[in-house]
Amino acid sequence: KLLPITMSVLSIKPEERKPTILAFLMFFSIVGATITGSSARDTFFLTDYDRTLLPLMFAIIAVVIVATVTFYNRIASGKDLGHIISITSVIFIVTLAGIQLNLKGIMIPVLYVWVEVIISISVLQFWLLAGEIFNARQAKRLFSIIGAGGSIAGIGAGYGIKPFVTNFGAGNLLFPTMGFICLSIMFTWLLKPFRNKTDIRSKPIQRFDEKLSSSKSSSFDPYLRSIAIMVIIAAVSSRIIEYQFKITAAMTYPSPDSLAAFFGTYYMVAGGATLIIQFFITGFVLSRFGIIGGLLVLPISLIIGSVSFFAWAGIVTVFIARFADQVFKFSIQSASREILWLPVDKQKVRRIKPVIDSSIRSIMEGVIGILIFIIVSMEFIPTDKLHWLSLPVIGICCIWFWNNFRLKDGYVGALMKAIEQRRLNLNDIQFDVTDSQIVKTIDIALKDDDEFKQLFALDLLRPLSLLPFKETLVNLIESGSLEVRKQILNIAGSMTNIMDNEVILSATKRDDEASAAAITIAVDRSLIKISDSLLKNLSSDNEHIQAASAVGSLRMNIHGTQAKKVLDDFLDVKDEH
What we know:
By secondary structure, this protein is mostly helical. It folds into 3 domains: 10-192, Growth Hormone, Chain: A; 218-426, MFS general substrate transporter like domains (Growth Hormone, Chain: A), CATH 1.20.1250; 427-576, Alpha Horseshoe (Leucine-rich Repeat Variant). It is 77% helix and 0% strand. It contains 23 helices and no strands. It has helices at residues 2-9, 17-48, 54-76, 81-101, 107-133, 136-168, 174-190, 208-216, 222-252, 256-311, 315-329, 332-340, 346-377, 390-420, 436-446, 451-460, 470-479, 482-492, 501-507, 513-524, 531-537, 543-555, 560-576. The longest helix has 56 residues, at 256-311. The radius of gyration is 29 Å and the shape is elongated. The relative contact order is 0.09.
C-alpha cells in the first residue's frame, strides 16, 4: 500500500509509475558510476601522479569533450538510442577494465580524462532517452523526481566508498563504477517498451563547429551577453575552486585510502544537501524573491567560501567553497539559468544556448586550466599558498553579482517583449517552479488595455497556480471584455478559492455569453440563490442565457415545466431548419 500512496503524493499517474521508477534507477546508476569513477580518478591522479599537472587536465578535458561529442554525433545520428547507449556503455566497461589492469604511469591521466568523457556522454544519453519516454507536461512533473535519483546516488555511493576502500582498497574503486554502468545498460532495455515508437532514432547533437558558425548569424544582444558573462564566470570560478579543493585534500590526506574516503564523504554530504535544496528551497527562493534571488545565491556563497579560504586556508574552508559551488550550481542556479532562457525566441535558443552553455564554457574551462598551470608552475603562487587564488574568484564573483542585476532587468524586458509578441510558453520549463517576476509580468499584462495581450496572458495561466492572480481575475470578471470574462470563467470558474460564490452570482447578472457560462458554474455549485434568476432568464431575449437557465433549472429540479418548454421550443426551431 505504501507504493501507491507515495506515487499519489508525488503526482505520478498509474501508467507512469513503471517508467518513472526505471528512469529513477537508471539515473541512480549513472550518478553512482559518476561518484565512484570521479573518486577513483581523483585519488589515483593526486596520490600516484604529478599533481602539478592537474590544471592541464582541465584544458585537455575541454578539448577532448568537444572532440568526443563531435565524433559521437557523427556515429549516433539516425541510429537507435537504446543500441547506442548499450554499445557505448560496453566500450566504457571494457576500457575501464583495461585501465584497471594497467593502472600506472600515463594510464592515470588517461583515466582522469576518460572518466569525464564517460560522465558527459552517459548523462547526455540519459536525458535524451528520458525525452523519448516522457512528453513535456510529464517532464515538468517527473524530471525533478527522476533527478532526485542522482542526489540519492550521491548519498549512497558516497557513503559506501569509505567501507569499500577499507575492505578492498582505493585501487579497486573502478569495479563498482563498472558495476553501475552494467546496471544502466539493463535499465536502458527495461525502458525500451515505454519509448516513443515514432521517434526512437538518436537525435544528433550540434557539432562544435556548427555551433560556432550558427552563432555568427545570431547576434548576441545585451541580455544574451549577460547570460554568457554569467556562464563564463561560473565556469572559471568553479575550476579554480575545484583545483584548490583537490590539491588541499591531497595534502591533507596523503594516502589513497584516506583521500578516497574523504571524497566519498564529500559526495555524500553534497548529495544530501542538493536533494534538500532541490525539493524544499529552490521553489521557495524563486517564488519569494524572484529570479534575482535565485541568481544571487551562488555568487554570494562562492564569495563567502573564497573569503573564508583566503583568511583561514585549510580543508574545512575550501570544503565550504567547493560544497557551495556544487550544491547550489546543480539546484537553485540550474533552475534560475533555465528560466533565463524562457522569454528568448525558441529558434534563437536552439542556436545560441549550446554555444554559451557548452562551447564557450568548455573554452573558458580550458583557458583557466592553462592559466592556473602557468601561475603555479612558475611559482607566481606556490602550492602551499593556493589561498591567494581566492582573490580572483572573489573579484570575478563581485562582477557576477553586479551582472545578475543587469540580467534581472534584461529578463523583465525580455518577458514583456515575449508576451507582446505572444511567444512565451511556460510549458517549456521542465520543473514546477515559477519565479515572482513571471507572476508580476503576467499580472501587468492582465491589467493592460490590449485585449489580445490579456487573452494571451490568460492562456499562460493554465499551468500555473492562480492564487497570485486572484484579485486581478476578480476585477476582470467585473470590468473585462466579453472574451476575457469567458476565458477567466473557463480557467478559474471551478475554483472556489479563486472565484467565490458571490463573484459567480454577480457574473450571472449580465446579458451575454459570459453570464451564460457563469450560470452553468452556479448550477454546478448548486447555488440556491440563483433560483429566481433562472426563472426570470427563461424568458430572456438572449438565447445563450435562456438555454443555460433552462438546462440549469432541470439539473436543479426547479421550474421544470417552463424549462422543458424552452428546450422544446429550441428543438422545434432546430427541426424547422
